[in-house]
Amino acid sequence: MKIEVMDTTLRDGEQTTGVSFNEEEKLAMAGLLIEEVKVDRIEVASARVSDGEFAAVKRITEWAKKRNCLEKIEVLGFVDGDISLKWIHDAGAKVINLLTKGSLKHVQGQLHKTPEEHMADVQKLVKTAGKMDMLVNVYLEDWSNGMISSPEYVYFVIGELQKMNVKRIMLPDTLGVLNPDQTFQFCTDMVTRFPDVHFDFHAHNDYDMAVANVFSSLKTGIKGIHTTVNGLGERAGNAPLASVIGILNDHLKLENKLNESNITKVSKVVEQLSGLRIPENQPITGYNVFTQCSGIHADGDSKDNLYFNNLMPERFGRNRKYALGKTSGKANIKKNLEELGIELDAEAMKKVTQRVIALGDRKEMVTIEDLPFIISDVLKSSSVKDAIKIRNYNLSLAHDLRPLASISLEINGKRYDETAVGDGQYDAFMKALWRIYNKLKKVHPVLVDYWVSIPPGGKTDALVETMITWDYKGVEIKSRGLSADQTEAAIEATIKVLNVIEEGTLTRQADWKEKMAK
């Protein structure tokens, strides 16, 4: 049985506190989800929300119509006569996900109607949709509580919906109250009583059981699952798309159309557009989830991949990494040195390992880019030459004037001076720096991400750690700087990465990755 995956990042995910996507962002994400990740359907908006929402849906439906996939675009609508239907129709969409009441409490307490009256209203709307050549899926809002407190009402509603021209019935755990046992019981009840109905399951994560509930629902014969990228959603969010991919492909081995190799790409895009960072330990997409910290794990991987599981990072466009810190052993460091193309003898390896562990004991972060500097410091060798130095710089900031940076840079003993203005002090510094590089026709890295960490407590003299992610010829590199001033920390991180590039370790890293890929 092929499982349908409907992603609702653009509708339910946008209900995350503080998250709002504009027209262009919604169109971009819709394209990524359908063309890159290959989800079966996407829910892109709620009817009647705003003029901006209408414009966004119209852009998406125009795009989808050109690609002959308009039926994959769905919009949430309401039992409001034909108001939602007209809104959705005018926006160019052909599928309405109709929000009906899935519990007796909601019908009586919110609508003040009988079940029969509610179904009569739904039937009128479904008939109107048919005349407008629109498809209807139905949400049973609060279905989970309906199954707990009023199952006979749920059976009645589904029985009535079966008589109508409804394509799918969608079962939401609206308040995230279910556990996996209840999910299995209730979904089994649905598919057993109504074997001819296409049911979708829609999980929320209030008790941190959304993914487990998806797993239980799929074991019952449920035909569709709803997800959001990075688990976005109201309150504690929804079931993350990446985690659902893992369940479908590895645990249940259910047929689906998803392209798992692009999940990291879309996750990073949604991270940027939503402004909500992916937790570093988020399964599959988190920065650290393919990083081994323990030295014994790295040793086992070297000997026979002893600490690998089926979630191989290459499946998701990722690479395995080996952390450097107080739990590091020689195997971790050796793995990182292999990536840099550096070889050390046994005595040198012992000294470097001791230094990495000591840094980790002080809770200092050690990255692969730090290794050449550690080697140089520990062994007093020329592994890394301080080829690029900042002789001095002057940064000025004045009210109603753009920040100005004047810098004096030394590259292999020769001095270069430059001045530039920017949108901030660091931006001005970088513009002056790249002017020097451009004059010398030197390739420079591209800044991908900029992260500032300040210890809690509100002290004005607190140290600032700046972590910058760069892309240099397809190789991702992170460098950090530590200072009482944020701009100085960023400059320190920048000079560090330039020296690594100048020394040539990044070029060897790119060559090593290409060799391993072959």
Give descriptors for this structure.
single chain; 518 residues; alpha/beta; 8-stranded parallel β-barrel; 18 helices
How is this structure best described in words?
By secondary structure, this protein is of the alpha/beta class. Helix content is 42%, strand content 19%. Strand 2 (41-46), helix 2 and strand 3 form a beta-alpha-beta unit. Helix 6 (143-149) crosses helix 7, helix 8 runs parallel beside helix 9 and helix 14 (346-361) crosses helix 15 (371-379). The protein is elongated and about 85 Å long. The model is unreliable at 294-304 (pLDDT under 50).
Concise overview:
The chain is an alpha/beta fold and about 525 residues long. The protein has helices spanning about 25-35, 50-65, 85-90, 105-110, 115-130, 145-150, 150-160, 180-195, 210-220, 240-250, 265-275, 295-305, 330-340, 345-360, 370-380, 425-440, 485-505, 505-515, and strands at about 5, 40-45, 75-80, 95-100, 135-140, 170, 200, 225, 290, 320, 390-395, 405-410, 415-420, 445-455, 465-470, 475-485.
- Per the principal axes of the C-alpha atoms, what is the gross shape? elongated
The largest pleated sheet is described as: 8 strands, parallel, barrel
Binned, the helix content reads 40-55%
Low-confidence stretches: 294-304
Average pLDDT: 87
What class do helices, strands and sheet pairing give?
Answer: alpha/beta
Strand order of the largest sheet: 1-2-3-4-5-6-7-8
Q: Per DSSP, what share of the residues sits in E-state strands of 2 or more residues?
A: 15-25%
How many strand units?
A: 16
The number of helical elements comes to 18
Cα-to-Cα separation, first versus last residue: 35 Å
What's the alpha carbon Rg, rounded to whole Å?
Answer: 28 Å
